[in-house]
């Protein structure tokens, strides 16, 4: 017979184990590797002059693809997904209000995006700054949100608590200067960035209500000329992408007719550092997105207009 104190201790241990397991981004049951899709994607990335990481999970079948899925890569602007989580953690604790009216100061200026173009003393709701961070990837607004979330240290603590051990904010975070030199603003792995978006989609990040709001923000992506351009325009997606000179990346959750799937493609050490739409990294993002759609939806094949890439290049460059 167990004493009441001994039994209580065991119950607490068991509960802690359950909580810890449910927090892990890899705690998705018993996923099986999709060997056919893995081979298809491995063939597709051959010849890319740079390092490539890919993680895919079909949320219906729980089959996955892992190609350098746990390798560390620069996040570039994908770090704005964890920043949003850190911010909503503060909101859930009552330390911030989502509709709070903020006052912009010139000291916040980082670049001349929408937020960075505001006049000193201008008023703007926090909700609009968050929207600009996720939708148009506004950098000044994102750094503002990072500070409001308690800084990189606080965001990293939330990530660690929720089982994300590879994903970290490096910029403006004491003790992470070496990581910033190597990876830039943030670092992650393809698996973790994809599973973070899947966690938000499942309503398990912060709370169901917070997850719902965060997910809605991620479904309004302005930068849709890469992977999203290879999906039918009526298909709903949640997405965050990133780009720096030698890296191009994209994490997407697709609401496909026969089952949602999430994926993340990240590159680094790319030889092609150009900033045109036919940059090798951008081309790879489009190829992967197209291959995944046609693989999961063979009865609903779709291709961007034949002249899309030419039209897009001429229109934006």
TrEMBL record:
Gene3D superfamilies in UniProt: DD-peptidase/beta-lactamase superfamily
Q: Which keywords annotate this record?
A: Hydrolase, Signal
Annotated GO MF terms: beta-lactamase activity
Which GO biological process annotations does it have?
Answer: beta-lactam antibiotic catabolic process; response to antibiotic
Q: Which top class of enzyme applies to this chain?
A: hydrolase
Instruction: Tell me which EC number(s) this protein carries.
Output: 3.5.2.6
What reaction gets catalysed by this protein?
a beta-lactam + H2O = a substituted beta-amino acid
One family name in Pfam for this protein: Beta-lactamase2
Per the UniProt record, which residue ranges are transmembrane? none
Occurrences of domain Beta-lactamase class A catalytic (ranges)? 53-267
Signal peptide span: 1-23
Task: Write the protein's name.
Answer: Beta-lactamase class A
Organism equals: Runella defluvii
């Amino acid at each position: 017979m167990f004493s009441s104190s001994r039994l209580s201790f065991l119950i607490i241990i068991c509960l802690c184990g359950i909580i810890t397991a449910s927090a892990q981004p890899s705690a998705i049951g018993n996923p099986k590797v999709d060997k056919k899709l893995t081979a298809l994607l491995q063939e597709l990335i051959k010849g890319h002059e740079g390092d490539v990481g890919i993680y895919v999970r079909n949320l219906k079948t729980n089959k996955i693809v892992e190609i350098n899925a746990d390798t560390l890569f620069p996040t570039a602007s994908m770090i704005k997904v964890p920043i949003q989580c850190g911010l909503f953690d503060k909101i859930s604790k009552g330390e911030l209000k989502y509709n709070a009216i903020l006052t912009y100061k010139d000291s916040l200026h980082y670049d001349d995006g929408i937020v960075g173009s505001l006049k000193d003393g201008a008023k703007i709701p926090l909700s609009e700054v968050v929207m600009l961070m996720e939708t148009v990837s506004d950098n000044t607004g994102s750094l503002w949100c990072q500070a409001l979330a308690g800084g990189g240290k606080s965001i990293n603590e939330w990530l660690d608590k929720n089982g994300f051990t590879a994903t970290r904010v490096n910029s403006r975070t004491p003790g992470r200067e070496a990581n910033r030199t190597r990876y830039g603003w943030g670092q992650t792995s393809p698996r973790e960035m994809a599973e973070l978006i899947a966690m938000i989609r499942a309503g398990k990040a912060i709370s169901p209500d917070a997850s719902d709001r965060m997910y809605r923000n991620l479904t309004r992506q302005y930068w849709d000329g890469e992977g999203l351009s290879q999906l039918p325009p009526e298909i709903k997606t949640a997405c965050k992408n990133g780009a720096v000179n030698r890296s191009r990346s994209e994490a997407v959750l697709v609401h496909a007719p026969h089952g949602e799937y999430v994926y993340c493609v990240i590159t680094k050490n790319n030889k092609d550092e150009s900033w045109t739409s036919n940059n090798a990294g951008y081309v790879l993002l489009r190829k992967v997105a197209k291959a995944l759609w046609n693989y999961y939806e063979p009865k609903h094949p779709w291709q961007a207009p034949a002249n899309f890439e030419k039209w897009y290049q001429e229109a934006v460059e």
